[in-house]
Amino acid sequence: MDAGYSVSLQKIIDAHSLEIIYLPKAANDILITTNEINRPGIVLTGYTDYFDSLRIQILGWTELGFLQKMDKEERQKALGYWLALHPAAAVITRGLELPEYFIKACEEYKVPLLRTNEETSPFLATLIQYLNTNLAPRITRHGVFCEVYGEGVLILGESGAGKSETAVELIKRGHRFIADDAVEIRKIDDHTLIGSSPNNIRHFIELRGIGMINARRLFGMGAVKVSEKINMVIQLEPWDSTKAYDRLGLDDTYTKILDVKVPVLTIPVNPGRNLAIIIETAAMNNRQKKMGYNAARELMAGLGMTDIEPGETELEIWKNS
Questions:
Q1: What is the pLDDT of residue 57?
Q2: Checking phi first, is residue 150 left (phi over 0); if not, alpha (psi -120 to 50) or beta?
Q3: Which of 63, 153, 171, 194 has its CA 20 to 30 A from that of 281?
């Protein structure tokens, strides 16, 4: 993850209801900058190569049991190997009782000590997901973001193209609104983008001639959502009669956002076109394609044109038929 992003230990404590055993300073002043976490097992034996002190350390039955079986001198040496590297924080899972020597060692080396009642593996998974989201590389795009039939649809286009009006129409048709004007996009992993709205404008939509509306208050909680995976991009543009628009949809086209490929469709805007219905259809069609069905290819096969080359234009297909 990008080292430029961080999350305070206080936010992690609040998000996971962690019990504070010891803090060397205010949790808001302790910043976590990596999404990777660690279990310190091998470090307790003295092997400290490749240890990353920026990571949160997780300890469960195994680590505490290992320490408990040592004599006092061995235990102090093992804790010294680990805590002298000044890890970002230590979290004890399963609500395990902490021996006094462990608490004193953390206080001596000024390492934050926390505890959770969750079991180790579920807590690891939850914490990694939380850090992946909060430390993800991100950009902001001008557009509208909605969930349509379970698909996250990012609607882009110039100002005045009708993005916000389309969002309201989608809400009225039972879909959920996520962001208007500024869409914050985070790269969770090499294949996943999550879109959300900045906190200060969340749930607000700007409608020219009306002004600002609050979608959550106007349409109810069921009409909004905080975040969603970006499954496709709809690019709105003014209708150009000289331009050849895709009429078959044989091959998917993609755009890259933060180096992640996302399917993109260019939709020409013309008076009288119902953009909400078009976007609904595009979302359902995108879902079908992900499930392995392509209506255009079924049509071509029915017409006996099964030897279609990828990227072949519509005109070339009909000429070759």
A1: 97
A2: left
A3: 194
Residues labelled as active-site residues: 142, 163, 181, 247
- DSSP letters, 53-101, are TTSEEEE-HHHHHHHHTS-HHHHHHHHHHHHTT--SEEEE-TTPPPPHH
Can you tell me the distance from the alpha carbon of 300 to that of 321, in angstroms, rounded to the nearest whole number?
Answer: 10
Which residues share a beta bridge with 113?
22, 90
* Cα gap 121→223, rounded to integer Å: 34
Residue 227's nearest CA partner among 278, 293, 179, 164 is 179
Interval 287-302: pLDDT, tens: 998 888 878 778 877 8
Instruction: Return d(Cα 44, Cα 29) in angstroms, integer.
Output: 28
Contact between 61 and 94 (Cβ < 8 Å): yes
Residue 220 has pLDDT above 50, yes or no: yes
The pTM assigned to this predicted structure is 0.77
Backbone angles phi, psi at 270, to 5 degrees: -140, 145
Cβ neighbours around 295 below 10 Å, total: 13
Q: How far is CA 215 from CA 158, 181, 192, in A?
A: 22, 14, 27
Compute φ and ψ for 310, nearest 5 degrees: -60, 135
The length of the chain in residues reads 321
| 3-state secondary structure (DSSP) of residue 22 | strand
